[in-house]
Amino acid sequence: MDGVTGSHTFESLLDEYRDKVFRLACSLLGNEASAEDATQEVFLKIWKALPGFRGQSSLSTWIYAIARNTCLSRRRMEGARRTFSLDEARAAEIPSREHPAGSDADVRSLIDRLPSKYRGVLVLFYLEDRSYQQVALALDLPMGTVKTFLHRAKKELALLLAAHATRKEEVPS
Amino acid sequence: MNCPEFEDPILEYCEGAISPAGRARVEAHLAGCGECRAYLETERELDRLLARSIPRPALSPAFGHRLAVRIAGERPAPRFRRLPRVLDWIGYLGLAFLAGRLLEQLPHAGDWVALASLAGCMAFGLWETGKALRSNYGHR
Asked: pLDDT tens for residues B2-17?
């Protein structure tokens, strides 16, 4: 896997950005298997294009642009919109503490119902250890927009959780 | 909420991303407003819930191997690449010599040799130009 630009080899880019690109793909595609395939595709594109990279933008901007475009075209191809969800096996391994609003799976299904621009920011914010800066860089959004989308997402989610909790109280299982 | 101007600052406070001046302003307000304290507690609970519901995913252990296989599949066939350039030229000259000897056996041999030389030069020129263009545009 050769390929060099400046002091960056393909291997060093892969080490530095593999997990970040994967988390971005998870937030945009909502499915780990699909996100992993997209991450493969992104790094294959990077490997092909790296010899022609002339530093028109910063390396991270360039990599995240490739990642976003790849994920968005993949999402268009896949058609159905899905969001963050653990696969069945992993979900079964994690003991879920019941919240008044419901289980973690309930919360994830409510996150799924948020508008995609809010949902992407919300999920990536938690995947990136609550870093506004990392979310802004990965999604190419101004920091103020990240905060606005995040806060709107939380407010909408709080309403959905309240409605969900009310429904659970009305229909006891 | 009775204090809408504190709604976003309280969210930023909860997310730990507020300026020192903003923090002091929010804390001063929280000290005297029970409703905003309750709002902060609700937001903290939501934050904990989200942190738990959105765990960090991990790439599968086979990711690196799969990528290496895909990249290997994209590499051009190394047919002539490993041969030193000088061997290529010895081969070309040998072929040209053989072709010349064959053409000498034909009637009007001089015309045939001239025609074959011209065709060979044009084909070689086109081939080299194509290679240079592909290389400049980053195609492999």
From this structure: 899 999 999 999 988 8
Radius of gyration for the alpha carbons in chain B, expressed in angstroms and rounded: 38
Q: Which of A18, A17, A20, A15 is nearest to A131 (CA)?
A: A20
pLDDT for A72 beyond 80: yes
Size of interface A-B (CB pairs under 8 A): 83
Answering whether pTM is above 0.90, one says: no
Tell me the ipTM for this assembly.
Answer: 0.77
Kindly determine whether residue A147 and residue B16, on different chains, have CB atoms separated by under 8 Å. no
Asked if the Cβ–Cβ distance from B46 to A23 is below 8 Å, we say: no
CB atoms within 10 A of CB B137: 8
The C-alpha of A68 sits at a distance from chain B's nearest C-alpha, in angstroms, of 18
- Mean pLDDT lowest among A124-138, A150-164, B64-78, B122-136: B122-136
Query: Which residues does B contribute to its contact with A (CB < 8 Å)?
Result: 7-8, 11-12, 15-17, 42-43, 46, 49-57, 59-60, 63-64, 66-68, 70-71, 74, 137-138, 140
- For chain B, what is the total number of helices (H) and then of strands (E)? 6, 0
Q: Contact at 8 Å (CB) between B81 and B57?
A: no
Q: Say whether pLDDT at A20 is over 70.
A: yes
Q: Which residues contact B101 (CB under 8 A, 6 or more apart)?
A: none
Strand partners, A9: A4
Whether residue B138 and residue A36 make contact (CB cut-off 8 A), yes or no, is no
Residue A32 with chain B: CB contacts under 8 Å: 57
Those residues with Cβ within 8 angstroms of residue B63's Cβ, 6 or more apart along the chain or in another chain: A18, A36, A39, A40
CB contact under 8 A, A147 and B67: no
**Confidence class for position B78, pLDDT limits 50, 70, 90:** low
